[in-house]
């Protein structure tokens, strides 16, 4: 049986002033309907490049992406995108921002139905009382909640999230993670999620695809063994099983280094630079 999303031998090479840069080695993976799959790896490893190729925002140098059997050749309403920056329209209020993406889908039904879905999602995300506020009146976490609602209001086949919580403080980030789990349990949306945070990837995902440093490629495809993400809670992060898996992923990403050793190596590097 074919997967909903198939990435087949996709690579990316950029021509830069300093020469050719291989951002992504030929990479293949599949995502089944309803899965939440994280692309995990260090900064610059090509995970965001892979996501942007799936979104149709960049063309692959080689390989192809198929969604429900159809080749991806550019952006389309069947893929909802959430960026790290909030990308809201400052002249539109929260509800109008949330409804904006529904204009992109052909034959998307009547306007009242689309608005009702957006309002229901805003209520689920705790924004019912802010639907007529403007982006300048919202906190960073609230803006990102609106951006997620906007992507979901269009009922995409796949939700693509590019480090969406990276700009948030630690407490707000944890709140957004729990809201994401709530959305997963209610919407069952197929999601591809980019992060460099090991704990975040394990907490949210059904699978984690681990990328090597640049030029990136998938070096591990890990099924997360903690049951459906929608039933998880913060206490999971303190369990011995979670901590052990987190250590294993850290070792995979940073072979031969403990967390302490990595900090010491960084301090030595900074000291040498200062000298």
Topology:
Layout: E1 5-16, E2 19-31, E3 36-40, H1 47-55, E4 62-67, E5 70-71, E6 79-82, H2 94-99, H3 111-124, H4 140-153, E7 158-162, H5 170-187, E8 190-195, H6 198-204, E9 207-211, E10 218-223, H7 240-253, H8 259-274
Helix pairs in contact: 3-4
Features:
275 residues; alpha/beta; Rossmann fold; 4-stranded antiparallel beta sheet; 8 helices
Describe this structure in words.
Strand 4 and strand 5 form a beta hairpin. The model has no long low-confidence stretch (mean pLDDT 88). The chain folds into 2 domains: 145 residues, P-loop containing nucleotide triphosphate hydrolases (Rossmann fold, 3-Layer(aba) Sandwich), CATH 3.40.50.300; 73 residues, no CATH class. 36% of the residues lie in helices and 23% in strands. It is an alpha/beta fold and 275 residues long. The relative contact order is 0.16. The strands form 2 sheets. A 6-stranded mixed sheet has the order 6-7-8-3-9-10, with helices on both faces. The chain has a 4-stranded antiparallel sheet with strand order 2-1-4-5.
